[in-house]
Design a protein that fits this description.
Layout (H helix, E strand, L loop, with lengths): L9 E2 L1 H4 L11 H8 L7 E2 H10 L6 H12 L9 H11 L6 H15 L9 H8 L3 H6 L5
Antiparallel strand pairs: 1-2
């Protein structure tokens, strides 16, 4: 501690989003919300370490899958439904697709991943599809 300044115990989302490792990530706000204890994107030191641990290249696939699912599950209902998929696609494409294009992609995702026919994707279905993708392993990390 320097002088009378208290030690910083949390980083605000605004501080975290400026980090080079997250700066260009379209999910940076959602990532911070998922890892923050307060759910608003403010990270304690432990939250910060947890986030970088999960995004490290050495983190186990199961842990990465769990957090990826939570990041994409915007409403927290443990299913990736239509609205979750729409938000995910719009984030990935920086909202540059038309509604028709987004709907087309959602239909293809559901067609590919929805094994039980309920028009949503549960964690087991997500795991089944994503774990077969070498791109997921290669891209779900942050270089420090």
């Amino acid at each position: 501690m320097q002088g009378n300044r208290p030690a910083i115990t949390t980083l605000t989302f605004e501080e975290v989003e400026k980090m080079p490792e997250l700066k260009e990530n379209p999910f940076k706000r959602r990532i911070c919300e998922v890892f923050s204890e307060d759910g608003r994107g403010n990270l304690s030191f432990d939250d910060f370490l947890d986030m970088f641990s999960v995004f490290s290249e050495m983190a186990p696939l199961q842990l990465k899958l769990k957090y990826a699912f939570r990041i994409y599950d915007y409403d927290g209902d443990e299913l990736l439904g239509h609205d979750d998929l729409s938000k995910m696609i719009r984030s990935l494409t920086r909202d540059e697709l038309s509604d028709v294009e987004v709907e087309f992609i959602i239909e293809r995702i559901i067609e590919e991943a929805d094994l039980d026919g309920d028009s949503s994707i549960n964690f087991a279905e997500f795991e089944h599809v994503v774990s077969r993708s070498p791109d997921f392993i290669r891209t779900f990390h942050i270089r420090i």
